[in-house]
């Protein structure tokens, strides 16, 4: 089957998302309003009977000086990735459509899981001096069909970002994430699945009187102050407050429950805060922030446990703690964050990663040079 790809309305796109149990928050129409430097395009895949069978949010960004664009579908599109006719039936029509919109290259992130590692397996790997990368550790489960998808993409000329022959431009979503399964579990079972240190910290926070509340848009300023402190402490470039206000307004206008803000306080001082995103049965811990003060009362554990409980109560099948490092070296500054997430008792999950296709090889090469000069 060869689909027809054409523009769809936001309403058509949103109806398609609502009909599915899980779609990335980066593939909802409102995400195009968040990324103000990109031009959003809502794409629909139609079968021979005219039915909408796939959808995607494509973000277009013009390359300086030439008027042609890079097209990016973060964690998308939402199509049948396991269809035997994936390349010609689903992806080729997408490439043709995006080329018609002036794209010189396409980057996408197939929402296809390849491997999973249990919390215990990750814990053992972190403690093993011979284990240097998660990718080299035997997984607890492997999705064989994912390799078939990867093989089909390579044969069609797609290249995984970062591989030889790909641009590997400075964009991208995490290939490795940590997820806590909630479906079919009671809150008590989820609590008992936390490791001993996590349970101890949750109890300590409760005993100390840490209070976690759900905030509103007026509390974004408080969140951002903690976020700036976190960025300075951890050495990353922070996003401006306007970005989070734009997220709040755009996502909640699309669905009031799409974005939530939580704050943890002790003796009247806010010590930690985090944003939570929801699409269908999938919940993401999106951005987190905390102060170095009063860490002994464990506000971050209290905050996460409240968010996990709320996600469970609202029917979430998975609580996604987002990106983790693939490096298991003791000196890696992100290893502490991995240990924190492993304490939830969930699982490390590897996705297929992001893939690139040059529609115009000369312009794609020029773009590589441009991006390399900016680094």
UniProtKB/TrEMBL annotation:
InterPro entries: Acyl_CoA_acyltransferase, FEMABX, PG_Glycine_Bridge_Synth. It holds the Pfam family FemAB. The keyword Acyltransferase applies. PROSITE patterns: FEMABX (PS51191). Coiled coil: none annotated. Keywords: Acyltransferase, Cell shape, Cell wall biogenesis/degradation, Peptidoglycan synthesis, Transferase. PANTHER family: LIPID II:GLYCINE GLYCYLTRANSFERASE (PTHR36174:SF1). Belongs to the FemABX family. This is Peptidoglycan bridge formation glycyltransferase FemA/FemB family protein. It comes from Streptomyces fragilis.
